[in-house]
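Board notes (copied after class):
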Amino acid sequence: MMKYTLFKKLHQQPDLLVLGNVWDAHSAKIAQEAGFKALGTSSHAIANAMGYEDGEQISVDEILFVVERIVKAVDIPVSVDFESGYSDKPEEVAKNVKKLVGLGVVGINLEDGQVENGKRVLGDMNLHKQKIEAIKAEEKNIFINARVDSYTTKHISALTESITRTKAYAKAGAEGIFVPLIESEEDIKAFLDATSLPLNVFLTPNLPSVQQLNKLGVKRLSHGAKMYEWLIKQNTKAFEDFIKKPQLPK
């Protein structure tokens, strides 16, 4: 309960919350020691590290196993990227989230996009709303960061669609909103004018600076699997070099 309250407060500060996105207990410990105030798991990184592609290929039990190790490894709040809830049944999603709360998780990302045949598509707004309502009926002390996939799916009216969906999700009980790939200052400003929910943006090369995001009123910044992917590139090169010439990298 205390960590949930702290996590909520971290979204109400003058400066945005920079979230450390992690995928196992070791990366979580490193992130805590580096000074992050809260962590978010990366579903993409966890799936890849466990041998799966992203897009709900991994089982909920495997996620629970990894998440439990992460939560036990740190003292700071942990939020879980829970994709679209690993079920189309709101009551099933709520049961899964209750298990996460039982492990000490304080928040979730819940997305309205789904991966179909390797491609992300925008899901049904009403179903997503029902999932949020079902979770909140089951578990009050969980920070639902509703993810809107209008930009990631290249919706023709991404900004308008994002605002419409955000209003529906806020009414259902979401406490934060995540709009990956919203990048222009103009869109961010228009979006923030339309909602009072704290906005989470995703780090991309086209995103305004952190100082500018603070000025605009953005409250959370995450990097998803980007750090993991960068490390995997280093890992790949190290192994490729090692097989040619067995010596440890300097």
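Comment from the instructor: The mean pLDDT is 96. The first helix runs from residue 2 to 9.
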